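Section 5: illustrative case.
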């Protein structure tokens, strides 16, 4: 039995069999996360915002658990949320992260929930981002008799791409740490860059609701 992956708008359909489904959806997940600037900017914000390796690992893991959960629920039609609302929510999550990065004194007594409980907040935003991943997977198409396998490898592809991005970000942060540029300026530039894009996406995606 031939199985394959049909991409929306594709001019060709390549037929693959057996393990081809796993390879196709693994590659699709990897490609999707690396081509999704909103998802990557959220992860970048977490890397810059959270102090301490344990807290950072907990936050990234919570984000992964969150988006894996809603990705599965949405694909099996156990959870349905209009995609336009999901996209606006994802943009708002970036606004929240950028506002935190822009704060001048992260050590002040009154801290936001994101700074106090980064894992909890990351899990919540992960639930939202997972619905975005589900939309991309639906658009790509699913093999009717091997949906669990396609879902598994799509998610593994996302995780692989996420790890590659995180590794690259750690390298960049390490290089910047050797320069005379103060960390506060790195955070501020990142905050304004992420925030500007996020606000634009909120407005653009909100307009699509009407």
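Designed sequence:
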């Amino acid at each position: 039995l031939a199985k394959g992956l049909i991409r929306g708008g594709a001019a060709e359909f390549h037929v693959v069999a057996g393990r081809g489904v796993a390879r196709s959806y693994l590659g699709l997940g990897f490609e999707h996360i690396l081509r999704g600037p909103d998802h990557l900017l959220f992860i970048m914000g977490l890397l810059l915002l959270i102090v301490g390796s344990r807290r950072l690992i907990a936050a990234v893991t919570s984000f992964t658990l969150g988006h894996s959960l809603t990705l599965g629920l949405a694909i099996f039609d156990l959870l349905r949320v209009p995609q336009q609302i999901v996209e606006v929510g994802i943009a708002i999550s970036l606004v929240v992260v950028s506002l935190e990065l822009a704060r001048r004194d992260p050590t002040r007594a009154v801290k936001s929930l994101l700074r106090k409980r980064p894992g909890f907040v990351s899990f919540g935003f992960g639930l939202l981002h997972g619905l975005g991943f589900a939309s991309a997977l639906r658009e790509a198409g699913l093999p009717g008799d091997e949906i669990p396998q396609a879902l598994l490898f799509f998610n593994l592809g996302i995780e692989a791409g996420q790890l590659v991005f995180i590794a690259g970000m750690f390298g960049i942060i390490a290089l910047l740490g050797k320069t005379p540029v103060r960390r506060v300026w790195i955070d501020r530039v990142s905050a304004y860059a992420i925030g500007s894009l996020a606000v634009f996406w909120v407005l653009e995606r909100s307009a699509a609701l009407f």
